[in-house]
Design brief:
Layout lengths: L1 H36 L3 E10 L4 E13 L3 E3 L1 H10 L3 H19 L7 E5 L2 H4 L4 H11 L7 E6 H5 L2 H14 L2 E7 L16 E4 L1 H4 L6 H16 L3 E5 L4 H10 L3 E3 L9 H14 L12
Parallel strand pairs: 2-4, 4-5, 5-6, 6-7, 7-8, 8-9
Antiparallel strand pairs: 1-2, 1-9, 2-3
Helix pairs in contact: 5-7, 9-10
Bound molecules: ligand C2E and magnesium ion (3 copies).
């Protein structure tokens, strides 16, 4: 009996760990819908910097969840759960509403800034979404050019013809589209010509070590050359340091989004950051070569 107990110990311990994470999942799934109405979610904005013009005219909106007992919960964790449980449209609609409201209030101070919202696969299959987005923009008197939507290729691929039809409606209305996390999953450069996109975001996996890794540098260069040749804006995601900036510039990327320039910021801090960047942004860049 004593032996049998000892044998059971590791298994019991394992089961406890599993129960805990299962419990956490259930809590998050249960609390998500009401959390949207009770002020636990917020939106942060991360600048996308045009490294050629040395200006910032874009940002990505990212969701944040401060849970009353669990504290900060990463979107990597709860977005996946929301997708699995069919709740992602609640999040997407909430984000679109918040971002459009923010864009409306920025029309005076920052009319040039376009903000990107992430959409999931289920959103792309919702045939009513394009009209809903356009109506919300019109109601808030926000120009369609102020909104970008970010989608991954794998989200498009779940039902490509339907997703592409919906994306085309949005693009024809003037909303910009970005392919997110490019280079991961089943990304294919050739496929880009079939998608109604205007921006390709090269995944952080290829950017984070670009100053040390020649293979990453070559992949980024080839991607930037082809996507740029197709007339698309190429954004490098997740750049953290100055050495990498020279590499992504050399590779032909036009935009950078990463901690090097700024972490995701509250709306107020982003607005301040934009003003600081407009006046003191040069310090981020390599000194200009004197042609004399
Ligand atoms: P994403 O759309 O690829 O967003 C970029 C993520 O990279 C963000 O993480 C951002 O904070 C992070 N990041 C940016 N620059 C750097 C850097 O220099 N270093 C590092 N280490 N990270 C950097 P975050 O906010 O945790 O979001 C993770 C993912 O969750 C997003 O990846 C997106 O797939 C999803 N997500 C976030 N907000 C939303 C949302 O509102 N809706 C949907 N559907 N998904 C969202
Ligand atoms: Mg994104
Ligand atoms: Mg990404
Ligand atoms: Mg991602």
């Amino acid at each position: 009996l004593a032996n049998a107990k000892a044998d059971n110990l590791p298994q019991a311990w394992y089961r406890t760990g599993q129960d805990e994470s299962h419990q956490r999942e259930l809590t998050l799934i249960r609390d998500l819908p009401q959390a949207l109405d009770s002020g636990q979610f917020s939106v942060v904005f991360q600048p996308k910097v045009d490294i050629v013009a040395r200006r910032c005219r874009a940002a990505e909106a990212l969701i944040r969840w401060q849970h009353p007992t669990l504290g900060f919960v990463s979107p990597m964790e709860f977005i996946t759960l929301a997708e699995r449980t069919g709740n992602i449209s609640l999040i997407s609609n909430w984000m679109l509403q918040q971002v459009i409201r923010q864009l409306a209030s920025w029309q005076q101070l920052h009319p040039q800034v376009a903000v990107a919202v992430n959409l999931s696969a289920a959103d792309l299959l919702d045939d009513a979404l394009p009209a809903r987005i356009l109506a919300a923009l019109a109601e808030a008197a926000v120009p369609v050019s102020a909104l970008t939507l970010e989608v991954t290729e794998s989200a498009v691929m779940q039902d490509a013809s339907r997703a592409i039809a919906n994306l085309k409606v949005l693009k024809q209305a003037g909303i910009k589209l970005a392919i997110d996390d490019f280079g991961t999953g089943q990304s294919s450069l050739a496929y880009l010509k079939n998608l109604p996109v205007h921006e390709v975001k090269i995944d952080r996996a290829f950017i984070k070590d670009i100053e040390h890794n020649q293979q990453d540098a070559l992949i980024v260069q080839a991607t930037a050359q082809l996507a740029g040749g197709l007339g698309l804006t190429v954004t490098a995601e997740g750049l953290e340091n100055h050495a990498g900036l020279s590499r992504v510039l050399d590779a032909g990327c036009q935009q950078v989004q990463g901690y090097y320039f700024a972490k995701p910021l509250s709306a107020k801090d982003f607005s301040q950051w934009l003003q600081d960047f407009a006046t003191q942004g040069e310090r981020f860049f390599p000194p200009a070569v004197d042609p004399a």
